[in-house]
Amino acid sequence: MMTESWNSRVAQVWASAAQNRTMNTVQLIDALVAERPENDAAAVFEAASVRDFVGKEAEAEPLYRRALELGLPDPLAARAVIQLASTLRNLGRAEEAIRVLQDGFAENPNHELADAARAFLALCLVDTGDARAATAVALDALAGHLPEYSGAVRAYAGDLLLT
Q1: What's the CA gap between 56 and 50, in Å, rounded?
Q2: Could you report the per-residue pLDDT of 132-144, keeping only the tens digit for each?
Q3: What is the pLDDT of residue 22?
Q4: Which of 53, 130, 147, 160 could form a disulfide with 125 if both were Cys (CB 3.0 to 4.6 A apart)?
């Protein structure tokens, strides 16, 4: 019950965060995080997320890593992998971000957030100069959502990697 209330209060802060992208959002989340034990993976994840949200990626990175090490449950773990990779990309470490995404979704390539991960993978590939692979990854992720032509788009995406 306590966790439900805490989660609801966290959700309320995030619901108003888009209009209030300030340090006030960090203070509100940090106050909620302070209510939890130091080793609460979800709380550490929220601390990372809010720093990422306000552009403090260098502060967010170690917090994402700690949340994952503490055993963050799914789907928060998948979100943390994606957000960590995005943070690494923003810090100019696209190749490391690629490894994080590939490792994070290796065991469950059909995870409900796998296509989101692939979108970030495509962005990282562009940053490393591999626009062809980025296009293939993005098209392959898109193919599964098309009402028609998914097979053709998936095949063309594969062809991009061969040529």
Answers
A1: 9
A2: 999 999 999 999 9
A3: 73
A4: 130
